[in-house]
């Protein structure tokens, strides 16, 4: 599966040299605490930026988790850094799991049972890592990010993330566990969709990204291609009808996601008409 995340690159904010010399009286302790929190946020954001450039995504995630645990609403840049960090940490494991799954099927077809057992053991190791990462971000969202959220945009972003990471769990969970994470993913996507419908324009990149990933959930996890196509087409048509009113800053992001939705619709309708077919959907 191709995962595309748009990055908003900004230069790290300059740290004022005078901050180290400010002495706060006791009665201004609240103000001092606020200043300390802001300095801590700046430090973690800078670490996350350089960790991303160094492709050390585990440290990037830890830096952004430290900000989340401050129980403050994240800025747009902070949200993106958090999302990009986790996407890269989970992405390599998802790719590894799919490769191993393909090898397992191939070895099984050849009747190499001993090799199949070894591959299953290896896959279990990767699955355990996937579960730890997914449960980590899901707990961070529930305990820190959503309770600190004041804007509809942020709420949609985090509910969408919950839907995405429960969907990742559903990719490899089996039996009862599969149903549980599948239901949780659906619930999160539905919550995000309800807020997006009232708070975000049809052309908003987060709303479009939600529709893109929610439709992939219907197609891949719920095995409902008709519902997936309906959802994707509705989001596409609603956005196209208002494209002339789109915010200039959001135009590039929105048109990119619209193209991904269109690509999925083309792939899915082709597969439905052919009763099968190859290809993987695009997600954000």
Automatic annotation (TrEMBL):
Domain of life: Eukaryota
Domain 14-3-3: 41-282
Transmembrane segments: none
Site features described as Interaction with phosphoserine on interacting protein, chain residue numbers: 94, 167
Family: Belongs to the 14-3-3 family.
Pfam families (alphabetical): 14-3-3 (PF00244)
Protein name: 14-3-3 domain-containing protein
SUPFAM superfamilies: 14-3-3 protein (SSF48445)
């Amino acid at each position: 599966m191709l995962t595309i995340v748009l990055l908003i690159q900004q230069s790290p904010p300059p740290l004022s040299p005078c901050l180290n010399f400010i002495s706060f009286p006791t009665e201004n302790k609240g103000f001092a605490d606020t200043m300390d929190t802001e300095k801590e946020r700046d430090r973690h954001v800078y670490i996350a930026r350089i960790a991303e450039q160094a492709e050390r995504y585990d440290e990037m995630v830890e830096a952004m988790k430290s900000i989340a645990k401050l129980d403050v609403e994240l800025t747009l840049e902070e949200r993106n850094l958090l999302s990009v960090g986790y996407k890269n940490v989970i992405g390599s494991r998802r790719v590894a799991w799919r490769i191993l799954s393909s090898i397992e099927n191939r070895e099984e077809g050849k009747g190499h049972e001993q090799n199949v057992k070894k591959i299953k053991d290896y896959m279990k190791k990767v699955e355990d890592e996937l579960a730890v990462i997914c449960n980590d971000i899901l707990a961070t969202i529930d305990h820190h990010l959503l309770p600190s959220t004041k804007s509809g945009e942020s709420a949609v972003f985090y509910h969408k993330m919950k839907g995405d990471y429960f969907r990742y769990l559903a990719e490899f969970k089996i039996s009862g566990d599969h149903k549980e994470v599948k239901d949780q993913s659906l619930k999160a996507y539905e919550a995000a969709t309800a807020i997006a419908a009232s708070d975000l324009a049809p052309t908003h990149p987060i709303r479009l990204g939600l529709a893109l990933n929610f439709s992939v959930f219907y197609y891949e996890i719920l095995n409902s291609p008709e519902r997936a196509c309906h959802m994707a087409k509705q989001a596409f048509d609603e956005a196209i009808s208002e494209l002339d009113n789109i915010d200039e800053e959001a135009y590039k992001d929105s048109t990119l996601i619209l193209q991904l939705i269109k690509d999925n619709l083309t792939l899915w309708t082709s597969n439905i008409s052919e009763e099968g077919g190859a290809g993987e959907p695009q997600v954000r």
